[in-house]
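User: Fold this, then the next.

Assistant: Folding the first:
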Amino acid sequence: MTVSVRDIMRKDLHTIAVSSSIQDTAILMNDLKVSSLLIVDTYGNPVGLVTERDLVRRACVKDQLSSQVTNKEIMSSPLITIDAKSSASDAIDLMLKNKVRHLLVVDNESGNSGKPIGIITPLDLMRYDDYPREERSDVLEMILEYYV
């Protein structure tokens, strides 16, 4: 039986408004102990993703005042999504192809039409027990080295 992305993703999908400051975003990430937040518009629709890397590379290194920069200005968009029924290998391939570390997991089951249900990162793939320990290390190194 093939394990799907749904089986290894993080189900705690945290969001913040597109208009919120990146200072609020960083505080929320710290409080929740997460490395990314899903950015939503005023209707709650996902429009982007802000990661710790986005905060560092798009704001901190430019010496921007975090209380005056919004998520819209630094978020990664469009969102790279993967269907919950996809395999771990599909997730790895998609991360490498798009040079990203976070994939939004969507449910394309009947009637859900791409509803976000979680997120998957290289750390989640490392926790996946069907990979032998050595292979998991190789996979993580491949994902990280490819675009660091």
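Now the next one, as you asked:
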Amino acid sequence: MAPVSMGFLTALEDDTIGLVAEPKTRILVVDDDPLVRSLLEDLLGDAGYAVKAVGSAFQARGALARWAPQLVILDRGLPDVEGAEFIKEIRADKESAPLPVLFLTARGKPAEKTEGLEAGGDDYVAKPFDAGELLARVQALLRRASAPKVEPHRLSAHGLSVDLDRHEASIHGKPVHLPPKEFELLAVFVEKPGRVLSRRFLLERVWGEGMDLSMNTKTVDVAIGRLRTALGKLGERIVAVQSYGYRFDLD
């Protein structure tokens, strides 16, 4: 297949079609531009995915409920709800919360990427996009989502209980409600108590290996600030190590 350039899609070479999905993996595309929807239907369909493309958050709600996608590609400039707000709806629903969500949007400034990731996005790709890169990121997100689960385990210390499989946390039996990224940060800290973890390590571990890490590591600081607040007094045990990162003192 020859390279394609239509403003949104910058390249598609023969070898990108080698990125073939498992049969019937379902991807929901939410974008108000019919050209983008058509391009993604062709690109993802040729790669072996089942694709449903809709133009609004209203339509996406129905597709999430009835079609049960395994990954969502989401634009930020929707006609009825801003994409960074709509993803909060996705994360707030028990059924859709675990879904990997990839932002695909013309809003590609570093601050806008940070905003999208902090809202709950798993990855962020700016338009115009490279077809091969998009397919690779889709596959990476699906691999992470389908990774074999380890045996259930729960970590406890100082009244803090963290169930790493059920994604539940509590302090002295009282539930602590955490957004996905803050929970993943807490999980990393309780798995490595007392160790100093760099901001870059946390960014890679929580926001995804292979992601565009040129964004400001302020992303980590903001999320940890929210985690500290949610943990209350126990949050004071997350100690900043100047010019490096953070340590969780549980001893």
